[in-house]
Amino acid sequence: MKLSTFKKGLHPEDYKYFSHDQAIETLPLPDDVYLPLQQHIGAACEPLVKKGDRVRTGQLIANSSSYVSAPVHASITGVVMDIEKYYHPLGMRATMIHIRREGEEEWELLEKIQDWKWTPKEKLLETIRNAGIVGLGGATFPTHVKLNPPDDKTIDSFILNGVECEPYLTADDRLMIEQSDKILLGMAIMMHILDVQKGYIGIENNKPEAIARMQKRVVELGYPFKVVPLKVKYPQGAEKMLIYSVLKRKVPYSKLPMDVGVVVNNVATAFAVAEAVTEAKPLVRRVITLTGDGVNQPKNLMVRLGTPFKDLFEACGNVKDDVHRIFMGGPMMGMTQYHLESPVVKGSSGIVAVTGELVEELTTFPCIRCGACVRTCPMNLMPLRLSKFTQEKKCEDLESYGIMNCIECGSCAFVCPANIPLVQWIRVGKIRLREHKAKKAKENA
Amino acid sequence: MTEKIQTSEEMEKETAVKTAPGSPEVKPEPEAPKPKKDPRSKLFRSDRMTIVAPAPHAKGKNSVPRIMYTVIAALLPAAIMSIVLFGTKAMVTLMVAVFAAMVAEFACNKIMKTGITVDDGSAILTGLLLALTLPPTFPIAGTALGAVVAIVFGKMVFGGLGANIFNPALIGRAFLQASFPVKITTWTLPALSGSGAYYDLITSKAVDTVTGATPLGLMKFEGIGTHLKPLLFGNIGGCIGETSAIAILIGGLLLVILRVADWRIPLSYIGTVFVFSGALWLIDPAAYPDPLFMILSGGLMLGAFFMATDMVTSPVTPLGTWIYGIGMGVFLVVIRIWGGLPEGVMYSILFMNGLVPLLNRWTRPRYFGEIQQEKKT
Questions:
Q1: B56·A359 Cβ contact <8 A
Q2: Which of A34, A65, A238, B118 lies at a C-alpha separation of 20 to 30 Å from A1?
């Protein structure tokens, strides 16, 4: 059978074997958690607690009046130590609420929903917002916004993203195997909110166990969903690529999936939605993969948000001596970590520690115009020209070559035989173009 | 030791308590006073430096030298075949050209104060390609001169690898064609054809050779055709590396399979020659050569698989590549049939090389989800 997929892209070695057989382990409650006020795209939250306050697990501790935002909940029971700037895994210092564990675990749940099928959609959306749910695949866009498209958009399909195309990561894979019922329930709830009939579950073909499990449970539970096995290719987990792979629809430039009638959500998000709606549990934990050849015992862990990375590494037998790089997320788009006290945030899908050859030490050759980047770019851009234009500061050309389309998947830099940091230049180019536009707007005004 | 990654001082204290005194693993920290600031601000220990860099953190295995050496390896069948057919002189030509190219590149590196780039393989490739396009009787000094011109004026004056517009090996050959028009069109038949063409290595004069025109020359000036079998195996007059279509095809297909050469280029180039000359042949089979002869004779195979596909001087966009290949095919047929020269592979490639920067610009692929430009009112 020919598996569907998108055009171009590449297939890096996936290294999933480190952790794909490791069942999800629940990490013991951490002693300290650090919860950033902003773990999502949108407005930052304001803290609702102060130093010395006692908080219970699941208690609302930060919120924002803005619509595009997601509240933060205490992930352990204890005392607020302080609200200070701490190291954030995205590489800056950000304001976080530091809670120290004290006493027995006590839960503060959300308002209970009796039967979601007969609950008004507004009520369900409110619950999802109150639970602080965001896109857990890494984009961290507030889910209640995604599930509430404007009235003029007709949504006809829902895609559940179980692709997990980044090498190393296996958190979604394990979640689909172990929690398939809750994921399907979450998907049903989201489809109910959107009032769509057609549901697809996109899973890459390197996760046969997850495909089989989801397929089996879909049939057994009688859901009208279609499990779509996809050819293994990076970056299939990117929303636009996945929509093309599953439905062969192209999301136009500067438009959103809802413009082609699709909403995509991650399996981990579906799991969180199911927990929020049926168990009234806010988002205080997530599954995270700790893996890489630099970790002694790669694992998939269910951890409380805000747990410092060092606690996770301790649970995995620590890192090996020759680790030279630790990053959050996959190797293609992950952020390198310089501080192991950084906490797990809502968007952390994995932490990878690697040894071996350094990418930065490879010799850079001049571009020989081999076209590998052009052949690989899933967005059909010309990375070699974009990086050149960035270096030459040709902002008009950057725009006409569609630099803002770049999804920064890193495929071009991965395949470049000359080892040119293409995607890095493109990121610089985006900033240059924005500055250029702002300057122009100022001049015209 | 498992407590390697801890970062807070509390954890360090714990470690010290846990370990029995006198344990060989734990050495007291050097007495450097620990700054009394927030312990959380401490980074990794100094013995555990990790790298902070933007993504991606993984890299494919392909590299520029790997590409160059792959092409060189793919040229080996043609090079070996040239030695088999034309004897030791061919071997000397190959070695001299490669050596001269490397020396020229090294000298340029020194003069231009760039790093040494000889080991990236592109100079070897240029020398090898140039040698394969020379006739067996060509003087060795001329070969070396051609290789130097190819590297210096074909590549290094533009700024080195990746900066040149024209294929360096063909620049070298064009220079030789202009400088030694007679020598470069003096052909001998291969030794295997029974005419015995082995050469004295020192004087580089043919010991016992029979001069013979190339099939294209025969066709153009005398109207004599050549059978297909010698065209395939190379038992004909011509440049040392271009006569055996089979040897070139073996290497060329390898390149296409390994995706080092874009399959569109040989296909569109050879295909255009076949279709265009086929159309002419159908119009008047007596006046025009048949298309199979056209694609198997001369340097078309070598040019299409190894020279036109040079990454630096060929387009990167699929559409641009098609235009490039078709353009070369049209030029080639025009030169061969109506031009003053019997062969036109070199000029057809050089012409289209000059168009590549524009082709890259004109044929930008439409990006994913690009909206059609609204009609200007």
A1: yes
A2: A238
